[in-house]
Amino acid sequence: MTTALVAHAAALDAEAPLAHVRQRFLLPAGIVYLDGNSLGPLPAAVPSALHDLVHRQWGTDLIRSWNSNGWWEAPTRIGDRVGRLIGAAPGQTVAGDSTSVQLYNALSAAAALRPDRPYLVTDPGDFPTDRYLTDAVATQLGLEARRVSPADLEDFLEKEGDRVAVVCHSPVDYRTGELHHMAAPTRAAHEAGALVLWDLCHAAGAMPIQLDALEADFAVGCGYKFLSGGPGAPAFLYAARRHHADWRPPVTGWNGHADPFGLHDTYEPAPGIGKARIGTPPILSLLALEAALTVFDDVDMAQVRAKSLSLTGFFLDCAAQLLDGLGFEPVTPAVPERRGSQVSLRHAHAYGLARALESRGVIGDMRAPDLLRFGVNALYTSHAEILSAVTCLREISTTGAYDPTAVAAGAVT
Ligand SMILES: Cc1ncc(COP(=O)(O)O)c(C=O)c1O
């Protein structure tokens, strides 16, 4: 059975696109890295870019670099680069801060564009920060946070849509890897007069996203997962151009002022996306992200999606053949159109298994209480690696070479 899978993996790798892009990453030998949906690996262009930034730009050019090395424009320049991956025409995306801060900014400002509507809607299964911030913004603005799952959203909008100010959802479920539709809910929300804010943390860089064509209102996402911008990389915020005249981000830092160096007494927002800037941009991490984004040069996102689906589909096939009867339950949809770029398996001993895999050089992760997550990135993951990860999981399970009593404590990678 495994011999056939080995041959199948080799055939799939031989015909898969993007094989040459793997060399744009510095992947450690002997590691199967399936956690790029949490922290992308190091792109080869980053160390030299950071060396130049630290030694020449900061070390020698000093403060002149704000002008001479393009530091001042970095948030919008790099925002536009991310924009190319999410279907946003230039001038609508800014890079900086964390996703949580960008969510707060976008949610508060979007809600203010729909006064007299009492509901902010989020998904009960969304990442905690989305739920916490929806609750917090609702409290601050005297609104009500409503939790509505993607499956129930269109029904909810039909019944109560005229009370909804903003819908904040993610296209990919961070635990199960399920991919939700974006077009139909965006349309339904607009028909009800509501605005839509997409959290693209698990989608940006992993699949084609067309924010402009969707007529999305706002979007946020992080730089450290599929964009491989490094630990704590700056996030991004997209605001559709049609909202630029009226939109007022609530965090009115001096960088977002129309005339920041005028040092005025009162705040006057910059025109366009510039008003989404807050404070002095984190140049070290912004320029690391900028260098990281070169891995996408000449990359066709349709090919990224096709290869990602081949990888996750092959993972599910391997799991069906090699893990049957060992206590694993795949929770990622088998239907390709409903899969993001990860596979999740439920198992009662997920934590112990994840640690045992890691000690054998297979790095995935788990989410409490019982989900093993394996992220694939079409830019560097191979079908052979998928097979070796599932084979390793089978060996650990059948030999009992893991601690079934291990439980996650503290930070879980
Ligand atoms: C879907 C989603 N939204 C938001 C966040 C939080 O991002 P940040 O830590 O940049 O605030 C995460 C982090 O993993 C996430 O997965």
Automatic annotation (TrEMBL):
UniProtKB keywords: Hydrolase, Pyridine nucleotide biosynthesis, Pyridoxal phosphate
Enzyme class: hydrolase
GO molecular function list: kynureninase activity
Reactions catalysed: L-kynurenine + H2O = anthranilate + L-alanine + H(+); 3-hydroxy-L-kynurenine + H2O = 3-hydroxyanthranilate + L-alanine + H(+)
Keyword field contains Hydrolase: yes
Function: Catalyzes the cleavage of L-kynurenine (L-Kyn) and L-3-hydroxykynurenine (L-3OHKyn) into anthranilic acid (AA) and 3-hydroxyanthranilic acid (3-OHAA), respectively.
Protein name, entry field: Kynureninase
Species: Streptomyces polygonati
